[in-house]
Amino acid sequence: MEIKRYNLLNVGVGGQGVIRAAQILSYAALSEGYKVRTAETHGMSQRGGSVASYLRFGIEVEGPLVPRGKTDAVLAFEASEAVRIFNYAGPKTVFLINENIIIPPMIHQMGMDYPDIKQISEFLKNVSQNIYFINANEIANNLGNPRTMNVVMLGVLLGSQTIPLKKETLAQAILNYLPIKVHNVNKKAFEVGIEKGKSLRRDFNE
Amino acid sequence: MSKPYYAEDIPGKKIIMLGNEAIARGILEAGVVIGAGYPGTPSSEILPALAEMKKYFPHLKLEWSINEKVGFEVAYGGSMSNVRSVAVMKHVGLNVASDAFMTACYAGARGGMVVISTDDPNCYSSQNEQDNRYFGLHALVPVFEPATPQEAKEMIKYAFDFSEEYHSLVLFRTTTRLNHGRGDVILGEVKEINRDYSFDWDRSRWVCLPSHSRVLRVRLLERLDEISEFADQFPFNSLKLSKEKINGVRYGFVAAGIPYSQLLDALNFFGITNKVSILKLGLVYPPPKKLIKKLFDSTDEIIVVEELEPFIENILKQLAFEEGISNELKIHGKDLFPQNGEFSAEIYLENIASLVGLPYEKVPVPENMMIIPPRLPILCPGCGHRATFYAIKQVEKKMKTKFVNSSDIGCYTLAVYKPLEGIDTEVCMGGSIGLANGIAKIQPEKNPVLAILGDSTFFHSGIPALINAVYNKNNILVVILDNRSTSMTGFQDNPGTGITLTKEQGIRVIIEDLVKGCGVSPDMIWVEDSYNLNKTIEKLEIAVKAEGVRVFISRHLCSLVEANQLRVQDIKPPIVKVDQDKCVGCLICVNKFGCSALNFDDSEKKVIIDQATCRGCKVCIEVCPQNAIYEDIES
């Protein structure tokens, strides 16, 4: 299938593996012959700040940035980060959200409130009809390596048919960017994520 | 370590690359020998990518220089010696290098010489968003700007040929989205240059004293004329004309760099790409006058799409005036597009739709908007800087006064935020000491003046300001936060580690010796491990109360670098816990010290340490007034 334009927005907190995911996804999209563009957050924002990466691929892609409302999917490694970029999504955007909230330390010091999963979920339901939460931290912990969370989420992205890429190319891309000693655990993480994605797919509102 | 993909010698192979890697690849393919610069986002990955290629291409001679001016001079020395050379820096780095740059442009290039300036619209990681295209106009040298990673690679390769053909320096300007965006790039051949590399004893050219410079300036102007003549054939400029009208008007667009790519997306979105004329510039200065005149002749309204200043817009308006058509031809630019920040993708859609008269619905804002407090970047868990700032606060409290904390560029700038609120100024590299010199001349004695800066920043440009303080007896305390790393830009080495860009052993420069050499009296220098909080407080109080120029070196390896070293050596850091019986929930550790590993359990009203985040620095043990925090040696 020829893809004209596919727009993904991947968000999270510095250190969660957003840039690694951008490397993996862009490598996979290129190996399927697409023109690829990304825009990533490097430098200052990585010190525990919000991180966002745009990924675009297809035969009609020129610039790296996605217009508001035109995102096909939001892949959020941290739940509240999905809210920050909500205006990039439209009613059909698929949100795949790791059901995990990292409260910025400054919130305590400023005596402010931070939203919980319920509030986040209720708000996002006004934005799109496809909001799905995945407990990727728990899945990764059960696999014995919390750092596989991002690969679990990539599995969900693929298994739910949210991204038009082949399993083989994405699996190859994952291995290409990770050290050999963590290949096995990440292969498992990817498979578990795919199964989770497949079960989510049944609930999608087309 | 395996061979990096951008070092592959397989011409024709298509791979995905970060913009900065594509630039590094282009530099390699061009046969460049010398690369020098100073780290600064968004330029920081270019020289390290080249350094990784050195193993396979040993002709490369690369270095992190002490600052951008020296980096520029190193590269220019290479050009004088007939080798292709590149100087790499962020936009504000060119301010530092500009003293050398402005005059070097007079004498011009021998070996191809390119200066990379990475601009940062929206100040993603910068103190300003200056538009360095003006440096080309100012120094009378051409400015190249690529639109995609592939074009960046091809264009920088071409820039070295161009530089040698016109004997001119080339300013290669990019913006953050080009540097930190990935794209598909086709590898080319790595050029082998066989020529005589040696210095050229042409004093009339390299000695820029008045009698020579007057002659060199005439030659510089002639060169710019020649380049200007050639601009219409510049291979990365292109003009696509359309005779079609939209709502009765023939539209023309002009853009370069990332805005050109985003403009194409927007035109494709409306399906009008073939109904408008488009002038794409790869050479943003000097302008291709014939192409611009052709565009004038074929359009009724022109829209210049450029971030930051109206650089191209003003050039077009000047040309329209010279042609005597400034009354009939409408040239839009900053009347439609903002002069600040980065253009989001929808700015293009909204502005084109409203100008041309096309339907475009803005994305509606949902009801019950959810406002989330910002997630600002913070100092890492275990960061020695946090401990030092906490100590400074304690001394301030003890002395019942307020310090003026003049500070600088680096991770520690993040101490401006709560809870530390530990810095009062930040302007430019090394500026902390310079500003403190001035503030100390005015500030009453009850308010001690501190200059707080990092190791790399001190080496970069803090040293002259320290000598200035000694010489002029400006009464300041300089606090050097020596974490043995240039961390904010990606943990680059510096003279304090003695390890070079190519990971070879250089000579380590000892900060204490350097400070003594600047004229600071040996009894006015204190050194302490940043993790020893109480000792730091004790020594710091003495240092604050002393008279004259004083230096306090607070030293501990960057906690991220240390954590990585421990992981490689398979050493477990200390385990620190909170004794739940002793914790009274006073929250001093959370609300005053503010390490992100310290969490408050709202239900129990106690503090707990997140073991996944904690680096085991043990500073919080000394922070806790209840002695509730302890090192768990048994587990």
Summarize the structure.
With 206 residues, chain A is an alpha/beta fold. Chain A contains eight helices and six strands; from the N terminus they run E-H-E-E-E-H-E-H-H-E-H-H-H-H. The relative contact order of chain A is 0.16.
Describe the structure.
The complex is a heterodimer of chains A (206) and B (635). Chain A is α/β, with parallel strands linked by helices and 206 residues long. Chain A has helices at 18-31, 79-84, 106-110, 117-127, 136-142, 149-159, 167-176, 183-201, and strands at 6-13, 35-39, 50-58, 71-76, 89-98, 130-134. Chain A has one domain: Pyruvate-ferredoxin Oxidoreductase, domain 3, CATH 3.40.920. The model of chain A has no long low-confidence stretch (mean pLDDT 93). Chain B folds into 4 domains: 5-233, Thiamin diphosphate (ThDP)-binding fold, Pyr/PP domains (Rossmann fold, 3-Layer(aba) Sandwich); 238-356, 3-Layer(aba) Sandwich (Rossmann fold); 384-567, Thiamin diphosphate (ThDP)-binding fold, Pyr/PP domains (Rossmann fold, 3-Layer(aba) Sandwich); 573-631, Alpha-Beta Plaits, CATH 3.30.70. Classes of the chains: A alpha/beta (206), B alpha/beta (635). Chains A and B meet through α1, β2, α2, α3 and α4 of A and β1, β8, α10 and α13 of B.
Question: What's the arrangement of secondary structure elements?
Answer:
The complex is a heterodimer of chains A (206) and B (635).
Chain A: E1 6-13, H1 18-31, E2 35-39, E3 50-58, E4 71-76, H2 79-84, E5 89-98, H3 106-110, H4 117-127, E6 130-134, H5 136-142, H6 149-159, H7 167-176, H8 183-201
Parallel strand pairs in A: 1-4, 4-5, 5-6
Antiparallel strand pairs in A: 1-3, 2-3
Helix pairs in contact in A: 1-7, 5-6, 6-8
Chain B: E1 14-18, H1 19-29, E2 34-37, H2 46-53, E3 61-64, H3 68-80, E4 85-90, H4 91-107, E5 113-119, H5 133-139, E6 143-144, H6 149-166, E7 170-175, H7 176-179, E8 182-186, H8 203-206, H9 210-230, E9 238-240, E10 251-256, H10 257-270, E11 277-281, E12 283-285, H11 289-298, E13 301-305, H12 311-322, E14 330-332, H13 345-356, H14 384-398, E15 404-406, H15 431-442, E16 449-454, H16 455-472, E17 477-482, H17 511-517, E18 525-529, H18 533-545, E19 550-555, H19 559-568, E20 576-578, H20 588-593, E21 598-601, E22 606-609, H21 619-623, E23 629-631
Helix pairs in contact in B: 1-2, 1-6, 3-4, 10-13, 14-18, 15-16
